[in-house]
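Render this sequence as a predicted structure.
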Amino acid sequence: MKHSRSCIKTLLFGLGFIALPTLAHADAWSFTATPNTTQGTYSSSQQRSTFADYGIGISADYLDQGGIQVSYSNTLIGETSGLTNINQNNYMVSGHLNFHPDALPGQVTVRLDDYVIDNNYQNTSIQQPNYDPTSRSNVVATQISWLNNDKTLYADLGYANSPYQGFTVQQYTPTFGFAFDQAYDWLQLRGYMISGLQASTAGKTSTNALETKWTHFFVSQSAWVPSSVTVGITLGEQDYAVNMDAQQVANLADLSQGADTIGLNWNLSKSTKLFVLGGQSRFRYVAGANDYQLNFGYAGLTYAW
């Protein structure tokens, strides 16, 4: 478990980085903690039955200069047809720095993420289906973004490198977002251009997809009324995608063929927020010519101090 030990050390270092400065500059730092869970069921799948993920993320930001985030989650996927259930550990460390250049009005943010995934399908001494070459990886993703001073225009460019046994996947994600309707609405478009895939599992060596998110903000004094609703639609195909918004690595070999989601955010108090998301993702198990769906729900409670 070399990767696991290495990432645990990284997580501990990140937590130490978060904790130590508070002794001298407590007022300059802001913190959040977000316990979360995702639950889902597969339909029409030849291999999978249930999905469950439990995790927590902790972040620290120093004024408007930058910050760091660490997270851990455990994913359990129930398998069918006598296959061994997948038990996966997911580790993530993320850091970002903010800049305000005179030549470009607004904020430029440079971000770097490190993801480590490690599951029980890594025994190379046994044959398929118990061995999966994507069961362990250390994925690095980076992003540079810009948000104008009025917070009505946004753009970023992301890159991810995902090394697996025998092949390496590369991903580029250009993004553009803008506000409209007096900033009560926000539309974001993100392209996923992925290459380096294995034709034996994906049926092709590259994929392209477009993710569209529309967010509407509500004005209400009641904690029971959502502060915003977000509708997401992904069209096209993806394989081994890295989602830097959700901070997730999709390391299952099956080809993603789109998704539909709807999310609600509540400001329960000045320091507590609740976000829930529901949706359906569609996949294709290429080797078995099996199209199936994952119906899922997510809930995350964020506490800030």
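Summary. The CA atoms of residues 51 and 212 lie 25 Å apart. The longest helix spans residues 2-19.
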